[in-house]
Amino acid sequence: MRILLGVSGGIAAYKAVLVLRLLREQGHAVRVVPTAAALRFVGAPTFEALSGEPVSSEVFDDVPGVAHVALGQGADLVVVAPATADLLARAASGRADDLLTSTLLTARCPVVMAPAMHTEMWEHPATRANVATLRERGVHVVEPASGRLTGADTGPGRLPEPEEIVRAALAAVGDVTVGDAEAGDTTAEAAAGGRQPAPDLAGRRVVVSAGGTREPVDPVRFLGNRSSGRQGVALAEAAAARGAQVTLVAANLETALTAPLVEAGVRVVDVGSTAELRTAVREAATAADVVVMAAAVADFRPSRTPGAKIKKTQGEPPPVIELVENPDVLAELARDRLSPGQVVVGFAAETGDAAGSVLEHGRAKARRKGADLLAVNAVGDGRGFGAVDNEVTVLDAAGDVVAEVAGSKRQVADGLWDAVTKHLSVM
């Protein structure tokens, strides 16, 4: 396959070298088309040595060959990594002021862009509008990772790892034989070997809950939890990438997290309390093949909620808030199976204590809940809620370990979907 690798001018340009190497190792012919700014981060000799092809950034570098037209016309795939905010803006507006943007205008093959920039730039309305425009035109814009950025900054906007970029790029052209992995490997296993899985959820209807429910104490206060919702969002994103029709029930998630999913075709239902989440999940589950309860659902709620803010009165003891138990949404779904053959998956955020380890508590919960699969993860001490990476042990209904997955939340999501698809294949 003939691939053009566009590189724009950001500090993450060094990762483009690894993307280039991975693509070349798969036997693809790759020509690098950098911007002038990109060459200030990585020199042309590096790209030329690894690609075996000339590198240029200006339309006047090969006038007889009409490179600004010929490159795009002859490509089977265009990958841009990193795609800076500037490059996204120029591509969205149809600019043709260098070789890369000219090539993007002439390419009629799949185009995949992997953005990289600071969080403020990624979340700016102008960038979001540019991304939406490109997606409407059929460009595959990969969601950036969340993690360490330039300097001490941390947040969404980090360039995905080269292996993830390559998998997303080759998936856009239906290439499912990336790397040296055996044909029987799962997605998580193939990630190490570099193979892109087939769209094994194509035609499946999936419901994912994400975030944390909030139980009102009064009009201004609530009982909540630390869930960021990022693992559930990653699950929805991964399911959509694997061909599923996805509904995300989002409990108190920021629009910045869910907007890219909406643009990618995921149906998002916003909820607040456990009662609202229960209603939304059960409604969507009546037509779902798989339900994944990744949201952190409150076990208890105040028995009553006053219509006015609870006041602090000098000399009076603080009010006593009586709690009542919320419905067990996961156990209900496992019991009721609202659609024939439905697979129900739960999450259990656990901490070890004197009564048992994280895994022991998880096993007891798996047997009690009755879900087909339960992903158990330890929380606290920088793990789980709010962390960039995650680690889960997947148990079956009997409490036996069927998988262990660690890495970014997207990698964990793909590993969990591997377990789910195996379960679907035997039902």
TrEMBL record:
Whether Heme counts among this entry's keywords is no
Q: Which residues bind CTP?
A: 299, 309, 327-330, 347, 365, 369
What Gene3D superfamilies has UniProt attached to this entry? CoaB-like (3.40.50.10300), Flavin prenyltransferase-like (3.40.50.1950)
Which biological pathway? Cofactor biosynthesis; coenzyme A biosynthesis; CoA from (R)-pantothenate: step 2/5; Cofactor biosynthesis; coenzyme A biosynthesis; CoA from (R)-pantothenate: step 3/5
Q: Where is this region: Phosphopantothenoylcysteine decarboxylase?
A: 1-205
Question: What top-level branch of life does the organism fall under?
Answer: Bacteria
| Ranges for domain DNA/pantothenate metabolism flavoprotein C-terminal | 201-422
Q: Which residues form the Flavoprotein domain?
A: 1-171
Which NCBIfam families does its entry note?
coaBC_dfp
What family is this protein classified in?
A: In the C-terminal section; belongs to the PPC synthetase family.
Record function comment: Catalyzes two sequential steps in the biosynthesis of coenzyme A. In the first step cysteine is conjugated to 4'-phosphopantothenate to form 4-phosphopantothenoylcysteine. In the second step the latter compound is decarboxylated to form 4'-phosphopantotheine.
Query: What name has this protein been given in UniProt?
Result: Coenzyme A biosynthesis bifunctional protein CoaBC
Lineage at the top is: Bacteria, Bacillati, Actinomycetota, Actinomycetes, Micrococcales
This protein's encoding gene: coaBC
